[in-house]
Design a protein that fits this description.
The chain has helices at 4-19, 48-92, 142-159, 178-189, 205-213, 235-244, 263-269, 272-289, 305-313, 322-332, 354-373; strands at residues 107-109, 115-117, 127-135, 165-171, 194-198, 218-224, 254-258, 300-304, 337-341. It is α/β, with parallel strands linked by helices. Strand 3, helix 3 and strand 4 form a beta-alpha-beta unit.
Length: 386
């Protein structure tokens, strides 16, 4: 019976092995299958594939959290910077530039060289059109503009004897012979048609135009650059644009010459850097100050007498960005504005230095907005110009 003993033991052991419960769940896993258990004694652990997914997700969450923190920090810094700039703009805001004249600026010389007192914009108009030409060191470029303008105006007067005009050249403290060059036209056409105002010191383009407008006699007032970049006969386009705005609220309306239609051509001729500066400036003008006007800087603008009085009475900026403030004031008072395409040619001799001038104008735009917003500057209904 010895042989049967091993068989009995083998059967018993086999039965024991067959009915013994598995020590862990992995014992039931088919060969080659992936277990949901990481190993013995680690019930509930995730498989290696899941663990690697969590490993990759953790840095992603950390990155998202870091970006959120940086965004919040950036927004806080931007808000703090804006508050600081607003405080600086408020503290450094100057009062409205004095409208007084120096004693020498209260007179003009007639064709005989005799002094005569300048009129005031508060007087009743006696001309249909006043043309104000700001000039700073323009002895070379001014004659071309004056010849074209006066030739057109004289021909128009011959066609329509009821039409009358005046041209006011404002010498903005020039260091060259600008006043003498302009005075020759006074001698040729007479001081009723051409007058020269010589400022004691340089005020800036906006300041020079304001001084000329304050002494104008026209029902309509045109500001025109001394370089003659805009074809002067296009004043008729501005007049038509002005008339199309009727009825004028409180007799106020403005027509702005525009070079926006020449933008594609100018981009083709400019460097990428200057094009970038141009687009940046246009964005700041739109975002901070003036909506709906594509070209605020064209120096060919026509005002009704009342619109000129209202806008220039509130003007603070006297240099290159004065156009923007002027239109900002006009839009505040809801003065209707027409933008009219004009013929324009770039003339050599510009006083603008591309980068620094645009940077200065950008700063002026920001400060214009902030100073009105903080109450450092206020809109004047009307203010008498002494």
């Amino acid at each position: 019976m010895e042989p049967s003993a091993p068989l009995h033991r083998l059967g018993a052991e086999g039965t024991k092995a067959a009915f013994s419960p598995p020590r862990h769940a992995g014992a039931l896993r088919p060969a080659g299958a992936t277990s949901l258990v990481a190993g013995p004694g680690r019930a509930g652990a995730l498989p290696p594939v899941c663990r690697s997914g969590i490993g990759r997700a953790a840095p992603a969450w950390r990155m998202a959290l870091l970006l959120l923190q940086l965004t919040v920090l950036g927004a806080a810094l931007a808000a703090a910077a804006l508050v600081l700039i607003s405080i600086i703009a408020f503290i450094t805001a100057t009062k409205m530039p004095a409208l007084h004249r120096h004693e020498e600026e209260k007179f003009f010389l007639n064709a005989k060289g005799q002094k005569e007192t300048l009129p005031s914009i508060w007087d009743s108009p006696t001309k249909q059109l006043s043309v104000v030409v700001p000039s700073y060191n323009e002895e070379k470029r001014l004659p071309v503009m004056m010849d074209e303008a006066l030739s057109y105006l004289e021909k128009r007067q011959k066609r329509d004897p009821a039409f009358n005009y005046e041209v006011i050249v404002v010498d903005d403290g020039s260091k060259d012979q600008t006043s003498k060059v302009a005075f020759k036209y006074c001698q040729k056409y007479g001081s009723d048609k051409v007058r020269v105002i010589t400022l004691v010191k340089n005020r800036g383009k906006g300041g020079a135009i304001r001084m000329g407008i304050s002494s104008s006699r026209g029902e309509k007032i045109l500001m025109a650059d001394a370089d003659g970049a805009t074809k002067f006969p296009d004043v008729e386009k501005l007049e038509k644009g002005l008339n199309d705005l009727q009825p004028w609220p409180n007799q106020m309306a403005i027509a702005c010459g525009s070079r926006a239609h020449l933008e594609k051509e100018s981009i083709a001729q400019r460097s990428y850097f200057r094009t970038l500066l141009m687009y940046g400036f246009h964005f700041l003008v739109w975002f901070l100050c003036v909506k709906g006007i594509r070209d605020t800087q064209c120096g060919f603008k026509l005002f009704t007498r009342e619109a000129a009085l209202r806008t220039f009475s509130s003007l603070h900026v006297e240099r290159w960005a004065f156009d923007v403030e002027l239109l900002y004031i006009a839009q505040f008072f809801k003065i209707p504005i027409a933008e009219i395409a004009v013929n324009w040619t770039e003339i050599e001799g510009s006083k603008l230095v591309p980068f620094w001038s645009w940077l200065q104008m950008g700063k002026d735009l920001l400060f214009i907005r902030l100073r009105y917003l903080t109450g450092a500057w206020r809109f004047e209904q009307t203010r008498k110009m002494n």
